[in-house]
Each structure stands twice: as structure tokens, then as C-alpha cells.
Amino acid sequence: MKTRVEEHDIIVLIDENLRKIIVDTNGKTDKIRGIGVIDPKTLLGNEYGKKLQIGNKQFWLLVPSVQDKLQGIYRQAQIILPRDAAHILMNCAIEPGQTVLEAGIGSGSLTIALASAVAPTGHVISYDIRQEFIDHAMKNLTQADLTRYVTTKIKDVTTGIDENGLDAVILDIPNPWLAVSHAWVALKIGGYLCTYSPLISQVEQTVRTIQQHPFIECKTYENIQREMIVSTHGTRPSFEMLGHTGYLTFARKVTTL
């Protein structure tokens, strides 16, 4: 286990407000809003777990977890948050060595979670119809040091899926019901389908389509998260409860109903 920062390390800087900044020590000198200019080379040799003074702020220096990588990405589109990403990983039984397809790369947050889960021998294929989203997501994946586990394609998943024998298909698109039949064909027997939708009307149409195909264990969830604030004066729920993000629907492929 590393105790000090070495060349080519990806690190996370966390300030007292728990803001997270992912830094590639092999990267270029960069200006970060609210901090100033950081030369990554100056971080080499520093001890992990210690506090550093950078400009007029202090940061803890750590090896980034998957959650750090998700929270530290640059957002261009709405991201799938860690609580929903974790639910997807568990309910789709994502493991190292698997091949997983996602459609709708967004800013790459779910891609980061999936790539971390299937590494070091698995792979993630990501479809999107917008090149600018793919380019932005790949910058975040580069920052997270996960690009070797991901292949991207400019493709509309509702027109078909090129791959087959997939362990899971995750759809983060406005009309997932149009891709359900393609997902069934592309999945291996026992493979999982997951859809992420912000509106219950989208869920209803998706589930009706799923029910027309040989899928079992079809369930829909909403994750509501409330942090508890523990202080010397007592404990209370946070006033900033993280409420609705989206609905997660899961189903598993079989051959006959």
C-alpha cells in the first residue's frame, strides 16, 4: 500500500467543506476555481492522509475511492448519483470480468462506477448519440484513470445493439422502452436489464414493454437518502435531504415465461 504520492498517481484533495478535487500527478499545471494554480508535480512525495496547505486553503490528500471519483467529476449533464450507482451495481450483480453496456453516457459518472466494478478483466461499452457528451465523459474517465476499461460508440440504442452475451444493459435515456427488445437479444441468459428514469410515466411504459418479453424479477425502486447530523448538542436529520433523483427498474432475462 502506498504511503506517499508517486509519479502517475491519481489523487483526491478534500477540503474542510468536503469539496473534492481529483488531480492527475502526471497532468499539466492547471487553474482550479477557488484555489488557484496547482502544479501536480509539487504534490509528489507528500504523505497520504496528511493535510496540505494549497494557497489559502487546507486539503487532506488521499487515494481516491470510487465515490471520490464520482463526486469529483466535471458535470455537463445530470449525473447518476453514488446512491443510485451503488443500487445499480448490486441489483445488476456487476462483478470483475463482466461485459456491460450502458446507453446515455452523460458526464460519465455511472461509467466510472461500472468500469471500477468490472476491472481489471471486464469491459464497459457506452453508447451515446452526442459526441460532445462522449468527449466530456472521456475527460472524466481519463481523470479517474479508467479509460482502458471503456469503449464508446456514437449510436442510438433504440435502433439496435451490436454486442451480444452481455452481463447487463443499463439504459439512461428518455425512451428506454424502445430499447427493451434489443436489450433482451443482447443479454446472456440470466443477464440484467436496468433503466433509469426521472418520471413515473416513463417507468410505466417501460415496465409494460418489459412484461411483453421473457424477463423475470421486474421491480422498480426509488432511493430517498437522509443524512443524520451528529453534534455535541444532539442528533437531527439534515435540513438538506437528498430526495428524488430517478426511478430504477430492474429485470432479468430468461428464455420463456
- End-to-end Cα distance, whole Å, is 49 Å
CATH H-level superfamily title of the largest domain: Vaccinia Virus protein VP39
Number of discrete domains: 2
Q: Which architecture of the largest domain would the CATH scheme give at its second level?
A: 3-Layer(aba) Sandwich
Class per helix and strand makeup: alpha/beta
The tally of strands reads 15
Shape: globular
Mean pLDDT: 91
Helix content: 10-25%
- Give the C-level CATH assignment of the largest domain: Alpha Beta
Quaternary structure state of the chains depicted:
single chain
Q: Trace the largest sheet across and list its strands.
A: 9-8-7-10-11-15-12
CATH topology of the largest domain: Rossmann fold
| Unreliable runs | none
State the helix count: 6
Radius of gyration: 20 Å
Largest sheet: 7 strands, mixed
How large is the share of residues in beta strands?
25-35%
String of helices and strands: EEEEEEHHEHEHEEHEHEEEE
